[in-house]
Amino acid sequence: LVEATWFSPTVHEPSVHQAALERALDGHEYRVRHRERGVIPMTTAAFPRRIGRRVYPIGLAGGLAKPSTGYAFVDIQRYAKAMATRLRKHPLPEPPAPRPPMSDVQDKVFLSYLQRHPRGAGRAIVGLFERLPADLVPRFLHDRVTPAERLRVMAAMPISTMSGELIRSAPTWLRR
Fold it and tell me: Cα 169 to the chain's mean position, in Å?
């Protein structure tokens, strides 16, 4: 299985993916058995939590893909369970927030960093896995951390760069 991922404001043509595959395999023989292609909106924009009196969007339409990673499956399961609990108590409940507010702030800062420094993304992410316990990073990516663990992850990032990005980007997303 080979996956090519880009954080980009534009969707790349299949030829770009093919060229990346050939570079990655560096002349080794391979056979393509199946191709998939997808685009996940990496956005921190607010999504409607209700689109009708009794209609609650889930998945991408409900803003349940984590903006900085595109991960959605675990968040969708957690959201569905929370909604089921709420529906047992009230026929038209308010839906839960997709993720903790601090997670939204971190996603906004990281996505802003990616826009300005796209080549630094790999180093930043690999650095998390190198500096932190193996179980902490996936829990962080799925918003299953304590406040202390969240701070530990933040400390494992390039602090001066991310702090600068927070200061630079905050006026943009605080206005929304």
Answer: 17
Return the closest-CA partner of residue 73 out of 60, 56, 61: 60
pTM > 0.85: yes or no: no
Residue 49 and residue 105: Cα distance in Å, rounded?
19
SS3 category, 61: helix
Taking only the tens place, the pLDDT of each residue in 95-149 is 888 888 888 888 888 888 888 888 888 888 888 899 999 899 999 988 889 999 9
Contacts within 8 Å (CB) and 24+ apart, 7-10: 7/42, 7/111, 7/114, 7/115, 7/118, 7/121, 8/118
Half-sphere exposure of 65 (CA within 13 A, CB side): 14
Indicate the DSSP class of residue 8: -
Task: Report helix, strand or coil for 55.
Answer: strand
Distances (CA, A) of 59 to 14, 21, 64, 120: 26, 29, 5, 28
CA distance 76 to 89: 20
Are 151 and 159 within 8 A, CB to CB? no
Cα–Cα distance measured from residue 5 to residue 140, given in angstroms and rounded to the nearest whole number: 20
In contact, 124 and 100? CB cutoff 8 Å: no
Cβ pair 36, 21 in contact under 8 A = no
